[in-house]
Amino acid sequence: MSGLANAANIPELRKRAVFTLLMLLVYRMGVQIPTPGINGEALAAFFAKNAGTLFGMFNMFSGGALHNFSIFALGIMPYISASIIIQLLTVVIPQLESLKKEGATGQRKITQYTRYGTVGLALVQGFFIASGLENMSAPTGAPIVLHPGLEFKFMTVLTLTSGTSFIMWLGEQMTERGIGNGISMIIYAGIIARMPAAIVNSIQIIKTGEIPFIVVPFLLIMMFAVVAVIVYCETAQRKIPIQYAKRVVGRKVYGGQASHLPLKINIAGVIPPIFASSIMMFPATIGSFIQIDWVQRMSAALSPGTPYYYTMYVGMIVFFCFFYTAVTFNPDEVAENLKKNGGFIPGIRPGKKSAEFIDKVLTRLTVVGAIYLAAVCVLPTILIHKFNVPFYFGGTALLIVVGVAIDTISQVQSHLVMRSYEGFMKSGKFSGRGGR
């Protein structure tokens, strides 16, 4: 903690932190700019009635932009959906797989495809939302769209697509020049910004008696317990012992030291619940705007609070835990690198046997991590949905907030360690014969 306290004294970290805060400020300013042609009062009344449905969760991930129907109403979800599609296609299409193996050059090409996919998904989602809003009205009967028609659809699709593209650019800039993952920071900032309003709303619900006062301490204890579990599991590691063989170079002996390979319980981090939420929102949101009986029934079945929703949600979390771990961690490559550097796992042969052992440990950890993520995201949400508490206090929101905070602190510590190492190397240089 003392190192983090001194982070403000480091010019590079201070510059990165200021840049991140400025980008988040720009994002929050854009959330307040409404899309033209919308009746704000009718839209606010509609969301007041549907706060506990899928619209409430979508509004949480957009940082309140959907509630205002601002230029950022689609949020970052089209980009996340496009990233999921590209990563899935990377496993299926050989050309994309070869691009991934090309390093930085191939990654830039994949990022370009992801951007194109984001714009395409934003166009489709924007059109469905614009068409659906024309058929929707407030509980009082007031229309949400002031002047429906082709012009409104065109303007809305153009505005929402441009807003999503700008958020995507903001996230990439924050990742490159700021602190933390830009996309995660945008979602984090949106949830944090809406929490004060959610607290006020919860207090009003308690005063009206919708939530029994005797239940409030239980909900608070549950929230603190969920945060404690998240912190423990996000920082827990399984350390595989590594022993390096001794090497004789001339008259000197090198190596022989012991180390370990740290494997986190939850390697995927907050990615699985974000991906799962994005997938669950996309079809249900489109279905909510299409006034067809079977589409409406499907939308109702996939709304938060139904068994179908939680079953699919858990299944997607488990799937993305294994998928993301398989994409980001290659046991064969790790075992090969250990073998090249003279390292081995005590009692395990180097090479294929080491890869099999690491894969076995990794699979067990992923099972535990998937169960942990599913429990944290679903169980509190079920209880909170029963008591009509806002989504901002559910397991998914708390997991994202705590997970992104831990990841950001880890990156700050990495910068501090890097700077300390560079300072040590500079101070350890010889200044020549005259400087002895």
Shape: globular
Order of helices and strands: HHHHHHHHHHHEEEEHHHHEHH
Kindly provide the radius of gyration, computed on alpha-carbon positions and rounded to a whole number of angstroms. 25 Å
The CATH architecture is Orthogonal Bundle
Strand content: 5-15%
Strand order of the largest sheet: 4-1-5
Poorly predicted sequence stretches spanning 5 or more consecutive residues: 424-436
Instruction: Report the end-to-end length measured between terminal Cα atoms.
Output: 37 Å
Account of the protein in words:
- With 436 residues, this protein is mostly helical.
- It has a single domain, classed as Preprotein translocase SecY subunit.
- It is 70% helix and 6% strand.
- It is built from 17 helices and five strands.
- A three-stranded antiparallel beta sheet has the order 4-1-5, sandwiched between helices. Strands 2-3 form a two-stranded antiparallel sheet.
- Helix 11 packs antiparallel against helix 16 and helix 11 packs parallel to helix 17.
- The longest helix has 35 residues.
- It is globular, with a radius of gyration of 25 Å.
- The two termini are 37 Å apart.
Gist of the model:
By secondary structure, the chain is mostly helical. The protein has helices at about 1-5, 10-30, 40-50, 55-60, 65-70, 75-90, 95-100, 105-135, 150-175, 180-210, 215-235, 270-290, 295-300, 305-330, 330-340, 350-385, 395-425, and strands at about 235-245, 245-250, 250-255, 260-265, 345.
